[in-house]
């Protein structure tokens, strides 16, 4: 899972990226270049399983993050940022909502709704221009040779164009499997899921609700939303121990770290769930598409497990915690053997039986 972080200058996107990944943009790397990073996914269930099994090795699922070039007229005109966005699975748009006279704003004032609208308009315009050009090429080609696939694609492009002209992102447009196949290779930005990260000041933590107009925009554009203080999160990240971090967070009224909230929203947006494998040798978290059958989840672990899948021994996280250990769970008849048709649920703990 790769998440691209975008935002206008001075929105706090770099501070948030560096806090989430621990990566700092190297000196000499221009702001017009994307910066890669990664971070462990924070999940309290994983921590509880590690405490229960005390494994020799532990492995969290990871999220790839990409700090995308700053959204200025120059990078927009060159198209650099759009090429980078096309390479990510979802977008985190950092929007400034904090007041600080020492940090300038390119438009002279802090206005989250205006900034949201500006960025979203640029993304819509990018897709609209691409679709218009594609329509021109298809119409020109169909005048020479009649092709059923191209004819179908032309109809899809016209539907997309109408949708975009209505100022609606393509992620809100219903598309079937054939439509997806026709457009899979196209750099359509607004098809991607988006999470809005409203960057608030320290004084607003735990006090100010998400502004109604921002919430309305998110609902209208099918976007997930969160509030974060990138500056405070960076201060928390510099503390030495988890106890110090938790105490600081409690004092400020912060429930979850930004990484926890961001990854949860991104997983929801992308339709991904977590499952686990456990034992004294290793506790590991894995990600799989929601509604995936057990062999597909097995394939996430290793292709041999999917190819030779026989059955999946399944425990649920909640039941394991409730009964205290595997022996008690098994005695209660809560450890189940499931075949190829079993649909993996979020929080399942799997032991795959296979033969190749």
From TrEMBL:
Q: GO cellular-component terms in the record?
A: cytoplasm
Q: Which UniProt keywords apply?
A: ATP-binding, Metal-binding, Nucleotide-binding
Write down the Pfam families for this protein, in alphabetical order: YchF-GTPase_C
SUPFAM superfamilies linked: P-loop containing nucleoside triphosphate hydrolases, TGS-like
Q: Which GO terms describe its molecular function?
A: ATP binding; ATP hydrolysis activity; GTP binding; metal ion binding
- Which intervals hold domain YchF C-terminal? 272-354
Q: Which PANTHER family match?
A: OBG GTPASE FAMILY, OBG-TYPE G DOMAIN-CONTAINING PROTEIN
> What protein is this chain from?
YchF C-terminal domain-containing protein
């Amino acid at each position: 899972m790769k998440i691209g972080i975008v935002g206008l200058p001075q929105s706090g996107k770099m501070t948030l990226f560096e806090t989430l990944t621990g990566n700092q943009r190297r000196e000499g790397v221009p702001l017009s270049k994307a910066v890669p990073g990664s971070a462990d996914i924070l999940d309290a269930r994983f921590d509880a399983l590690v405490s229960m099994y005390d494994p020799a090795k532990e492995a969290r699922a990871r999220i790839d993050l990409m700090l995308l070039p700053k959204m200025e007229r120059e990078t927009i005109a060159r198209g650099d940022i759009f090429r980078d966005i096309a390479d990510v699975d979802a977008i985190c748009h950092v929007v400034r909502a904090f007041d600080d006279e020492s940090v300038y704003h390119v438009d002279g004032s802090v206005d989250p709704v205006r900034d949201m609208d500006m960025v979203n308009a640029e993304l819509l315009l990018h897709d609209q221009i691409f679709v218009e050009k594609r329509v021109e090429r298809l119409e020109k080609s169909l005048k020479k040779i009649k092709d059923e696939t191209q004819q179908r694609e032309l109809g899809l492009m016209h539907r997309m164009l109408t949708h975009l002209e209505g100022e609606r992102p393509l992620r809100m447009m219903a598309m079937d499997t054939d439509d997806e196949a026709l457009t899979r290779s196209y750099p359509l930005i607004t098809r991607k899921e988006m999470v809005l990260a409203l960057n608030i000041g320290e004084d607003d933590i735990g006090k100010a609700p998400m502004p109604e107009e921002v919430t309305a925009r998110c609902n209208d554009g099918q976007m997930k939303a969160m509030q974060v203080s990138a500056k405070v999160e960076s201060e928390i990240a510099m503390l030495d121990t988890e106890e110090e971090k938790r105490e600081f967070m409690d004092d400020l009224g912060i429930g979850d770290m930004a990484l926890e909230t961001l990854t949860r929203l991104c997983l929801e947006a992308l339709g991904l769930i977590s499952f686990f494998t456990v034992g004294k040798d290793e506790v590991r978290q894995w990600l799989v598409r929601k509604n995936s059958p057990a062999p597909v989840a097995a394939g996430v672990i290793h292709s041999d497990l999917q190819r030779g899948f026989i059955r999946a021994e399944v425990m649920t996280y909640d039941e394991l915690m409730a009964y205290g250990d595997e022996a008690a769970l098994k005695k209660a008849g809560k450890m189940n053997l499931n075949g190829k048709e079993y649909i993996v649920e979020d929080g399942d703990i799997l032991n795959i039986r296979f033969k190749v």
